[in-house]
Amino acid sequence: MALDNGIAEFILTAGRQVDENLSLIIERHKEHVKLIECGNDEEAARVAVETAKAKRADILMKGTLNTDVLLHAALDKQSGILKKGRVMTHIAMAQIQGYKKLLMFSDAAVIPHPTLEQFHAIVGYTAEACRRLGIETPSIALTHFSEKTNPKFEHTISYKEIIRRAGNGEYGNCIVDGPMDVKTACDTESSEIKGIISPVAGNADVIIFPNIESGNTFYKTISLFANATTAGWLEGTDVPVVVSSRADSVESKYFSLALACFLSNNDY
Amino acid sequence: MALDNGIAEFILTAGRQVDENLSLIIERHKEHVKLIECGNDEEAARVAVETAKAKRADILMKGTLNTDVLLHAALDKQSGILKKGRVMTHIAMAQIQGYKKLLMFSDAAVIPHPTLEQFHAIVGYTAEACRRLGIETPSIALTHFSEKTNPKFEHTISYKEIIRRAGNGEYGNCIVDGPMDVKTACDTESSEIKGIISPVAGNADVIIFPNIESGNTFYKTISLFANATTAGWLEGTDVPVVVSSRADSVESKYFSLALACFLSNNDY
Q1: Are the beta carbons of B190 and A247 separated by less than 8 Å?
Q2: CB pairs under 8 A between A and B
Q3: How many domains would you assign to chain A?
Q4: B131, part of any domain
Q5: Which residues, in sequence order, are bridge partners of residue B208?
Q6: What is the pairing mode between strands A103-106 and A89-95?
Q7: Do both B157 and B220 map to the same domain?
Q8: What pTM value is reported for the model?
Q9: What pLDDT score does A195 carry?
Q10: Which of A114, A210, B61, B181 would bridge with A118, disulfide CB 3.0–4.6 Å?
């Protein structure tokens, strides 16, 4: 799809035998695809990361190998593409039937249980990505299962500090609020019934999840049950990394790549 | 709705002024509604729990007060309705457009991060509830953001033990498997693409969540974006407790109550 539409040139590092179908595609587009055959998935991941690090590629994209194999290579202290002190996180964008606008969310795939500083990075990245996509003042909801700050749930304490920092302008133009649940964040009626007064409630451009289990549940649930089209990438690394799930649709993989291309062309 | 259909008699313990609308409904159905006016939400919760404990009510149902106010009263060691050593958990049932059958899930509202023994209780309760609803051998998926058991995520270790116990027949007729993500649990195609061989994959009757953040995210997401109709209740207490969210639809509250009535009539 990406080749047919000519949105990118490809360097394919293959850790397994290339099947007949893929061979035909490579042959048909041989001017735009370079194949590097590798011994196994680990080597393929390492070679792909090296290629990006050497600036011979603008984007890194995952194929059928396990995400953690690619991440292991990308995060290697010597040969990886994550600068020291940077936080790497997964960001996704969803077009959901029944929601009035695009919805960005994080983190569904990388950071298990974000610390305050990881939340800080996530909010900064998503605010910036929204503005680059044309949303001048993004509304960012920090989600939880309720609307109460509770020391038993450490992320709600982090949220408080993040909201303070947002108020100080640390994330540029944006409105950050929470904790609130997913329904409150995205549905005006629900937030009104609950009597929640927040500039973000019912109007979120971005929803931040407290942990990977909830983020991933949201991702898989909207894909499966809400006819959502999603695009996802990793942020914080030297180049955007597209880590579509093997079970994602072709369309989703294509949109992820296209979005990464767009962000990459923007010097992102 | 419940009064019009005559499915239950009501004892209303009101912690706030009863509004005009509700007064009219009470007046119209005065043979089936008893109103007890209380000073505040806390007292209303306590009186409702006492009524259930004294077997003058078969079901306890939450109104517009905060869930934790009702739970506080229900869990009181002296006057509460949770027997010592019993685990209380929230169970919900969803009818989701695009899923081939009803889907039960837990815990979206009560237990923050289930321990092994809490997972044990949850699996036991859901297996039993499914069988009572006519599903002879329920398929129960233990969800996670991936398919890998990983000591960094304690619930995946609990899952291993739960699956062992299920194999030993501790939960009666049922099939338990995991960890797997929500999509793998409910979509045959996704699980096939990922090459996952499991009798539960793509066919779950029940999905168990690793923590309240993910369970609640699922609950709110299917309600908001997947046109789901849900019903929910608390299990483990002396009587079923219906704890619909204030933002739930009237339909959802009605189905929750109807399901609780059904389970209650079954000596549940």
Answers
A1: yes
A2: 132
A3: 2
A4: yes
A5: B106, B142
A6: antiparallel
A7: yes
A8: 0.89
A9: 87
A10: A114
Question: Do residues B217 and A182 touch, judged by C-beta distance below 8 A?
Answer: yes
φ and ψ at A184, to 5 degrees? -60, -40
Residue B10 host element (H or E): strand B10-14
CB-nearest partner of B225 from A143, A226, A246: A226
- Secondary structure element (H or E) that encloses residue A26, with its range: helix A20-28
B183-194 exposure pattern, b = at least 16 Cβ within 10 A, e = fewer = bbbbbeebbebb
Question: Can you tell me whether residue A85 is helix, strand or coil?
Answer: coil
Q: In whole angstroms, give the CA distance from residue A232 to residue A241.
A: 9
* Residue A77 shares a structural domain with residue A143: no
- Find, in chain A, the residue whose alpha carbon is nearest to that of B211: A213
Residue A170 counted as domain residue:
yes
Q: Length of chain B in residues, anyone?
A: 268
Q: What is the CATH number of the domain that holds A16?
A: 3.40.50
Neighbours of A102 (CB within 10 A): 16
- Which value does ipTM take for this structure? 0.89
> What does the angle CA A69 – CA A71 – CA A72 come to, to the nearest 5 degrees?
65
CATH code, B128: 3.40.718.10
- Whether residues B107 and B36 share a domain: the answer is no
Structure token pair of residue B47: 């009186």
Domain containing A124 equals 89-229
A121 and A33 part of one domain: no
Closest alpha carbon within chain A to B247? A190
What are residue A14's DSSP bridge partners?
Answer: A37
Q: How far is A162 from chain B (nearest CA, A)?
A: 19
Residue B267: per-residue pLDDT = 47
Task: Examine the domain organization and report whether B215 and B153 are in the same domain.
Answer: yes
Strand partners, A143: A180
Residue B136 has, within 13 A of its CA and on its CB side, a CA count of 0
Q: Which residues of A touch B (CB under 8 A)?
A: 67, 96-99, 108-109, 112, 143-145, 152-153, 181-184, 186-187, 189-191, 193-194, 209-218, 220-228, 246-247
Q: What residues form DSSP beta bridges with A103?
A: A94
Contacts of B157 (CB under 8 A, 6+ apart): B149, B151
Residue A264 tokens, joined: 């990459």
Using CA atoms, how far apart are residues A165 and B129, in angstroms rounded to an integer? 47
- The single residue listed with the structure tokens 């639809």 is B249
* pLDDT computed for residue B268 by the predictor: 38
Distance (Å, whole) CA A146 – CA B80:
24
Question: How large is the average pLDDT for residues B22-33?
Answer: 92
Please give the average per-residue pLDDT across A192-205, as a whole number.
Answer: 92
